[in-house]
Amino acid sequence: xxxxxxxxxxxxxxxxxxxxxxxxxxxxxxxxxxxxxxxxxxxxxxxxxxxxxxxxxxxxxxxxxxxxxxxxxxxxxxxxxxxxxxxxxxxxxxxxxxxxxxxxxxxxxxxxxxxxxxxxxxxxxxxxxxxxxxxxxxxxxxxxxxxxxxxxxxxxxxxxxxxxxxxxxxxxxxxxxxxxxxxxxxxxxxxxxxxxxxxxxxxxxxxxxxxxxxxxxxxxxxxxxxxxxxxxxxxxxxxxxxxxxxxxxxxxxxxxxxxxxxxxxxxxxxxxxxxxxxxxxxxxxxxxxxxxxxxxxxxxxxxxxxxxxxxxxxxxxxxxxxxxxxxxxxxxxxxxxxxxxxxxxxxxxxxxxxxxxxxxxxxxxxxxxxxxxxxxxxxxxxxxxxxxxxxxxxxxxxxxxxxxxxxxxxxxxxxxxxxxxxxxxxxxxxxxxxxxxxxxxxxxxxxxxxxxxxxxxxxxxxxxxxxxxxxxxxxxxxxxxxxxxxxxxxxxxxxxxxxxxxxxxxxxxxxxxxxxxxxxxxxxxxxxxxxxxxxxxxxxxxxxxxxxxxxxxxxxxxxxxx
Length: 562
Prior knowledge:
Blueprint: H1 25-36, E1 40-44, E2 47-50, H2 51-67, E3 75-79, H3 84-95, E4 99-102, H4 109-119, E5 123-127, H5 131-137, E6 145-149, H6 157-170, E7 186-189, H7 190-197, E8 212-217, E9 227-231, H8 232-250, E10 260-263, H9 270-282, E11 285-288, H10 295-304, E12 309-312, H11 314-322, E13 336-339, H12 346-356, E14 360-366, E15 371-375, E16 389-390, E17 395-399, E18 411-417, E19 424-425, H13 429-435, E20 442-450, E21 456-461, E22 466-468, E23 471-473, H14 475-482, E24 488-498, E25 502-511, H15 518-528, E26 537-540, H16 554-559
Parallel strand pairs: 1-11, 3-4, 3-5, 4-8, 5-6, 6-7, 10-11, 12-13, 13-14, 25-26
Antiparallel strand pairs: 1-2, 8-9, 9-19, 14-15, 15-16, 17-18, 18-20, 20-21, 22-23, 24-25
Helix pairs in contact: 1-2, 1-9, 2-3, 2-7, 4-5, 8-9, 11-12
């Protein structure tokens, strides 16, 4: 197919990427560790870790895992926040020849049980703060080996010990737990596993680009979460695509090893994970933020040293701007504000650029596409309101329900094909049959329109569409408009049943100005939206329900609205 979008690529951005320059993702890690040695990899709570340390620690943990007799390709669950332990564990699992299963540490027991059972994980590395949740489901899982990390394990001898003590005994953030040793199960402290592994050798395991690197579970917004099977090829390709695309923004830094990326989004999420692996390839460093919801501390971190890349979601940027200390941050080094994970609103983007001088660059992707599928050019000076162009080696087609590609300008389902796209859902043959078209495109469930320049605009998710008197209304359009109303921080639109019109629109609004009234919002909607798109109901809320990566959960709003 003709890639009409490539004519709008910024100068110097490659049209294709070649994942085969590496034998596997493990090969990429080994290469990076050799090249970058004493360079810093991460800083967390002012404690630094070098690539040499990451290499040594992951070698030891990988050797320890191998000593437990796990079969090649075994699934190892990682239930950790943004701490140095995450990168060490991820690298250890991959280098030992196993598959990473990223687990959200804030999962409930029910959610954790499903993921452990579905993935068939036989080992898990978990922060002790969340071990009580694991305790509830351990005996119903296939887990044979548990490694329990403490928050301060890799944050310096004395500071780390003090931090672990404070979290356990002062803040009381570690609920009591007792992990069952039923059936010969082992439970080992993280530091002990590392210490034991240092006396062992990490055996080289043959790996190819077609082996599974990650089982990346979807958010489960439509039911039980599904594991997207991401191969070594998928992840390497995604990393190279991101590198090619971001290169114009970072060009004037020169030595990419000097780049400081802010890791506030959770590393267990594919978006942040891909950027973490890109940092490893380039030898740059990441500032790890374990709890970005503590915006006071987050802002203090941003003030400590210059930063160049700030990936985030709309709600994160919004919350930062609402904080009274936001104006004390120096944004002069910021080269790229990358928005993803959910639609960025025009209102947030406008305020962000006015406050920081940095245009918000919106991209789109999902777990199934190994993070970014499309992105706006990073050379862009203003917010576009669309999701940009397909990245190198990616094809985007707008298709109808039968899988037929529609002409430019037509509305249909966004479908994607490329080396970054998953091979399928884990153990879900029926779902896979529905997900892929005959010509190899993956259906995304997003409704979009592509213009003649190859730029795509998302209209909305199929399932979120509101039908008012036979007219299709897409919530994202309403939310983008209403977010620009003075006094509005963020909003969400849903459809609620109506005997006359089938559905009517209800909008939930979080306001920055307590004087803002329903009438004022209604007047703004009257001035900016055609009749059938105007909300019938407006409700003010102090906050909106969100997923752990910051997506507004319209589903919860629908469930709790009668």
